[in-house]
Amino acid sequence: MSNMEIRKNKRPSSRKPAELRNVFFDAFLANNIVLIQAIGITPIVAAGVTLQNGVALTLCTAAVLLPASLFLSYIGDRLPSWIRAPLYMLGAIIILLGASILIDRLISQQLYANLYIFLPLTAVNSLVLYRAGGFSVSHEPVAALTEAIASSLGFGLVICVVSALREIASYGTLWSVPINSAVKLSEAALPYAAFLLLGFMAAFLQWLKTVLERRT
Predict the structure, then answer these.
(1) Does residue 194 contact residue 161 with C-beta atoms inside 8 Å?
(2) What does DSSP assign to residue 14?
(3) Which residues contact 127 (CB under 8 A, 6 or more apart)?
(4) Neighbouring residues of 189: CB distance < 8 A, sequence distance ≥ 6
(5) What distance in Å separates the CA atoms of residue 74 and residue 86, rounded to the nearest whole number?
(6) Distant-in-sequence contacts of 209-215, Cβ < 8 A, 24+ apart
(7) Which domain holds residue 87?
(8) Is the distance from CB of 78 to CB of 68 less than 8 angstroms?
């Protein structure tokens, strides 16, 4: 689709709360970017081993996705399609460089040491590229921002649940605070454990959607 066609067919910004709620619910849960579309799995599997990691990666993803979505909603349809991804990645790298410095110097050097490999990868995270480059270009800013917030929260929900369960099972802690856990499974920190948890969560979500559809 050409830029002119995108601009012509661009959906207007809805000011009806019901329509924005539908956009939010669809991106957050019904069409969850991770559990339904299987996008953005890599950071969950690789780094989602503690709740602190999960929260940090969620915030970094949102810090990139929100401004990228607004930017592409405003002027994305005026840019050639071939330049959108490189321009987005440049902005993402700048944002994440600032986030890396903030985490290292003001929050926790240990947290930065755990994430320093994965923070740069957030700049090319398929989740952000897919959502910002797809939905936002064809929608007005209010809808694009709503969808970006919901996608960030949907990603955050999944990675934080997986990270918390893996931390409890493998280390016997939650947010680095020891808890009374009778059983420890060091294997929970391995990638296959994350895939198993994601599979169970995806199956539960599909079941929940089926139940809700039968009631409507």
Answers:
(1) no
(2) P
(3) 33, 34, 39, 40, 61, 65, 151, 155
(4) 49, 166, 170, 171
(5) 17
(6) 209/30
(7) 3-215
(8) no
Cα(200)–Cα(191) distance, rounded to whole angstroms?
15
Condensed to tens digits (0 to 9), the pLDDT of residues 131-148 reads 555 677 778 889 999 999
Give the sign of the dihedral formed by CA 32, CA 33, CA 39, CA 42.
negative
**CA 173/CA 158 separation, integer angstroms:** 19
188, 165 in Cβ contact below 8 A? yes
CB 76 within 8 A of CB 56: no
Question: How many Å apart are CA 153 and CA 29, to the nearest integer?
Answer: 9
- Tell me the pTM: 0.85
Give the total number of structural domains in the chain. 1
CA dist., res. 39 & res. 126, Å (int): 6
pLDDT per position as a tens digit, 44-59: 998 899 999 999 889 8
Q: Which residues pair with 173 in a beta bridge?
A: 178
Distance CA 184, CA 169 (A): 5
Q: Tell me how long the chain is.
A: 216
Identify the CA nearest to 65 among candidates 86, 22, 95. 95
Cα dihedral sign for 26, 32, 36, 39?
A: positive
